[in-house]
Amino acid sequence: MTGNHTDKTISRRRALAVTGGTVAAGGLVAAGFQSAFADTADTTTDADATASASSTSGACMTLMTSVTEGPYYLDGALVRKDITEGKAGVPLTLRLTVVDATDGCTPVKGAAVEIWHCDAWGYYSGYTTANPGGSAPAESEEGDSANDQTYLRGYQVANANGVVKFETIFPGWYTPRTCHIHVKVHTGGEKEDGTYEGGKVNYTGQLFFADAIAEEIFTLDPYAKHTGSYTVLADDMVYDGGGAASGLLTLKAVHKKDPSKGYKGSLTLGVDPDAESTGAGSGGGGTPPSGAPTGAPPSDSPSPSASASS
Length: 310
Fold this sequence. Notes:
By secondary structure, the protein is mainly beta. It is built from two helices and 13 strands. Strands 4, 5, 8, 11 and 12 form a five-stranded mixed beta sheet that branches. Strands 7-6-9-10 form a four-stranded antiparallel beta sheet, with no helix packed on it. Strand 9 (180-192) and strand 10 (195-208) form a beta hairpin. Mean pLDDT is 77; it is low at 1-59 and 284-309.
């Protein structure tokens, strides 16, 4: 599936920008996995990843720039590794390494990494009636047992090597965005009542997928039931073409000849643990496409505003 979008969805509730410092260049490929959801990476693997991230001889460059939070953020995500809740899709094991870009790219132990993304048909939990664009069945037709307020959202707390791992599915897409995962890095808070409370957000970003891989995935079930014009990376309003430094994941197929078996994705996130900014992240301007988003957040969560890109 290829194509361009001319509409621009511009909505946000909150976005944070961070400037200055340095960041690890490129994504780190996680090795030793037996399947997309297998957790066989041991301490040696984590240590190797940390050594790569910590090197100051060319491994660090400019700090990754925060981008917009988007319109689908919800507070109170659960601390958990598996965020799928039974949602159908191609398995994705996500490994992220958080480093202090102001201190030689050393690991940030205890950093809380939060991610959220849409399901295979473009629907976000909490906004299950929001129109994903194109032609897609209603989210209610998926027939899964997922909680409509919590699926495909979660936190993980970084280990001593700055590493977190998530088990999820390859995201779908919605108009007018390319395929992506939202991410925040928090520090200074603590786990409480199953979620993460307090502290501050050091980085707000988005993770992206190579066009060729995304388009191949979208020919598979259940993704293929969502039809329409998919936005490629070059036409996306948020991705700026900077590769790993702009959130482009390193991806490795579990089985090269069978993409339905899943992928392993990895990236190093360079942050300044002392920094916090409430300025708007990058992502462009414009107006929301007609009819989207039409969903409403849960009644106990703030409604997103309509002033920044998704």
